[in-house]
Structure formats: C-alpha cells, structure tokens
Amino acid sequence: MEGWQYRAFFSFIRLHYRHVASVYPIEIDLARTIASGKAVTHVTWEIVAELNARHAHDQAGITKAATLELLRRNSREAAAAVRAFTDDELDRAASFSLSFGAPVTAQFVIEDHALRHSWHHLARIRAALGR
Questions:
Q1: In this model, does residue 56 exceed pLDDT 90?
Q2: What are phi and psi of 95, to 5 degrees?
Q3: Any idea what the Cα angle at residue 104 is, between residues 70 and 42, rounded to 5°?
Q4: Which fold has domain 3-129?
C-alpha cells in the first residue's frame, strides 16, 4: 500500500469510529422518545444521509486520539443510559419514522440502532481489513 492509500484507508476507519461514537447520543435520545410513548416522526432516512454526509465532511481531519476519546466517552454514557431504562420503558412502543411509521419498542430501537449500528460499521471495517 502506498503512503496516500495508507492514509486514506486509516482515515476511512477513523471516520467510521467517529461516526459510531457521534450518533450514540442521538440513538439513545430516539429510544428515550419511544420509551416515553411519543412517536418519532421527524427523522427520515434522507435526514440520516444528510447528517452522515455532513459529518464525514466536517470530521475528515479528526485525530485518532480524539476519535478514541469520543468513542470511549459516548460508549460509556450510552451503556449507562441503556441500563437506566426500566422494563416498562423498554416494552413501550410508538410509531417510528425510520421503520416507516411502524410501532416499535424502545428495546427495538436500542438493539437495532445503537447496538446493531456499531456491529454494522465494525463489519465494514473488518471487510476493508480483509478479516
């Protein structure tokens, strides 16, 4: 791998880690909204795509150290927030625009977004590394 390819490759990986770290608070807030019994109607896949594109542009030069610190902090905070949900809150369902308005539980939002989302990006990184 040439120098520019090496830098581009690791920039790709760093951006994925930064993205995951940055959206943990958003995903937890969406779960909290559903847990309160309120519908999430304002978040669409188009808005998510715009957010992701803007984030990729704005965070292109972020350092590895800053990325890992954000990931550590937001991961800890997200884990604490998930542990704080009651069983009743996890079971509560409301309309969720990212699932085309289907009623979903707060537990589903946590599992499908905060947790699965991390694994999705980890799989992309592993594939890029050939692992």
A1: no
A2: -65, 135
A3: 65
A4: Four Helix Bundle (Hemerythrin (Met), subunit A) (1.20.120)
